[in-house]
Design brief:
The chain has about 220 residues and is mainly alpha-helical. Helix content is about 55%, strand content about 0%.
């Protein structure tokens, strides 16, 4: 992806420093949703909306025990899916999306999750965040996942300025983050956001690996 000439060299330099420091602090960046097949990550990322990854990981084994394949899940009723996934919250809408998504996978893609960003966006319940996660984690392609941790942290650090809309944050980060770094960078932001630069409590700036370069220093 081409870099925007309007982006300041200072921001690009800051981005590279942040990437370096987060790599040192969190060398083993990875998705915290557990899956062993691409279609399962599609299911889990839909369930993770307004729900913790930890809870999703607790719920999905029961779902896959009853419906062990994308085909089996596509043939399940919305009510059957909802009965299992309702502890994740928004049970009916999530079950409806999962059902429709699996049906489209079987009917249009022969059960295979597409490795094209625009094709992923056609799947029910799949937005840019989910599509980027699939592209990066499943297919190893450049990806930037703008979840709540990412949006909060890049604003605090100073990589973006007061932008809260996920797509706009994503577009700004594409200008700053080397494509090959994007996916792991976002995973590290999640880890840092949970452990240090928290949302519901005061951030632990005294033990932050970014404290010398962070713009906020809350």
């Amino acid at each position: 992806m081409k870099k925007d000439k309007a982006v300041s060299p200072e921001k690009r330099e800051l981005a590279l420093k942040v990437i370096e420091k987060l790599k040192e602090e969190y060398p083993d960046a990875d998705c915290t949703l557990e899956y062993n097949e691409a279609w399962k990550l599609l299911v889990s990322v839909r369930l993770a909306a307004q729900c913790t990854d930890e809870r999703v990981n607790m719920i999905v084994p029961s779902l896959y025990e009853k419906f062990p394949s994308a085909k089996a899940l596509s043939e399940a009723s919305v009510e059957e899916i909802e009965e299992i996934v309702k502890p994740c919250g928004l049970g009916h809408s999530k079950a409806r999306d999962i059902s429709a998504c699996m049906k489209m996978l079987m009917e249009k893609y022969e059960g295979r999750v597409p490795d094209d960003f625009d094709e992923l966006l056609k799947l029910p319940g799949v937005g840019r965040k989910s599509a980027n996660l699939i592209m990066g984690d499943v297919f190893g392609k450049p990806a930037i996942v703008t979840d709540t941790h990412c949006i909060r942290l890049v604003n605090r650090i100073g990589l973006v300025d007061g932008i809260k809309e996920p797509k706009k944050v994503e577009m700004e980060l594409w200008k700053l983050i080397p494509p090959e770094e994007g996916n792991d960078f976002c995973h590290r932001l999640v880890m840092h956001g949970r452990a240090v630069c928290t949302a519901r409590t005061k951030p632990y700036c005294d033990k932050c690996c970014l404290k010398e370069i962070c713009k906020k220093r809350l």
